[in-house]
Amino acid sequence: MPYTDMYAQKQVTAEEAVKSVKSGDWVDYGWCLGHPVASDKALATRAGELSDVKVRGGIALWMPEIFAIPNPENHFTWNAWHCSGIDRKIIDMGCGYYGPMRYSELPRFYRESVDPVDVAMFQVAPMDEHGYFNFGPQASHMMAVCEQAKVIIVEVNENMPRCLGGNEEAIHISQVDRIVEGSNPPLPQMNSAALSEVDKKVAELIVEEIPNGACLQLGIGGMPNAVGSLIAESDLKDLGVHTEMYVDAFVEMSKRGKINGSRKNIDRFRQVFAFAAGTQKMYDFIHNNPEVMSCPVDYCNDVRKVAMIDNFISINNAVEIDLFSQVSSESAGIRHISGTGGQLDFVMGAYLSNGGKSFICLSSTYSRGGEVKSRIVPTLSPGSIVTDSRTCVQWVVTEFGKVNLKGKSTWERTEALISIAHPDFRDELIKDAENMKIWRNSNRI
């Protein structure tokens, strides 16, 4: 049967498609830009006849309609694999929870561990001439979701970039149960915040550690993007990309001729990523671009793959770090912020890389309620999640300097971290370190 005929047979309205959802079902919304729009709205209209519907998603960039209804907690529960501000808001509403994970394990979770997917609904690019719907910039774990789904609903959006890849970046129409043609909403724009002087100073300290031919991974946030902006203006050349999240900074570096991937040990000349979110400039750049390679996250974030790439440079943010060098990047006390994501994988993989370096960057202070507080603390705030154990941390950078913690004892680590803390907090941190018996008088010299 011609694919066009198969398409016509499977095409239904969003309202018809979501009739597949029943009370008690596990429903999967996919990931980030792939979350459904028309199907989500149609499902919200059915709320009154549904209860205990458990929905999986992550890095939401807009509020799902199923949580814009009265008393959504009576009908739907959100299960986020990684949190954006929207995901946090849903959790604060009492309608959801975070699913702890190393992001690299997510495809395996679906194939081995989680409850079966009763219905999967997500946005895709239009079908190509071979009958494939591209997942867009979120190959991530989507094939694993589809393999476990009893019903697959694809929602076509003509604005979704078609991202080329190595494998698992598209689904064939023969595997799809229902096709919804949405209203083709524009993709949300995720603009980078203006860079602060602190961001720029941290970026300068990191960029001077990057050699020509290095392969880059940038985490989300101002500081990693600042590094990317500075690289774009630098004399560095022959850089490669192997990253979890593709961001606008990579586009700027590419257009400035800094990235060609010629020195990568694997996937030469290709910029590898698991998902992407940014501005229209970035969506246009990755569309049908053979230079970029959309791959499942168990490939992109695999510590073993990362370690194969020489001079791998991993750059990620943190919420706080304690004097024992434990890094928390996903919560502030018991308040959940984001998730482990791929940070731990890249911290470990970069260190195992020949010539590789892992950087955890953070501002020395932050303000809360008008009070300035140190991000370098004696011990993590009660309830804070340890994202990177002290044994894994390599470089730590603030605007006051950078230190390599590998090979250092507890008191050497303490000394190093206090040296890059804000000067206003150093004496207090010394007293705390003395009380914890990880400081000695000779450190004062």
Automatic annotation (TrEMBL):
> Which top-rank group of organisms is this from?
Bacteria
What Gene3D superfamilies would the database entry show? 4-hydroxybutyrate coenzyme like domains, Acetyl-CoA hydrolase/transferase C-terminal domain, Glutaconate Coenzyme A-transferase
Q: Where is the Acetyl-CoA hydrolase/transferase C-terminal domain?
A: 278-433
Give EC number(s), comma-separated. 2.8.3.-
Q: What class of enzyme is it?
A: transferase
Q: Which InterPro entries match?
A: AcetylCoA_hyd_C (IPR026888), AcetylCoA_hyd_C_sf (IPR038460), ActCoA_hydro (IPR046433), ActCoA_hydro_N (IPR003702), Butryl-CoA_acetate_CoA_Tfrase (IPR023990), NagB/RpiA_transferase-like (IPR037171)
UniProt GO BP: acetate metabolic process; acetyl-CoA metabolic process; butyrate biosynthetic process
* HAMAP family per UniProt: But_acet_CoA_trans, But_CoA_trans
What is the official name of this protein in its record? Butyryl-CoA:acetate CoA-transferase
* Native organism: Syntrophotalea acetylenivorans
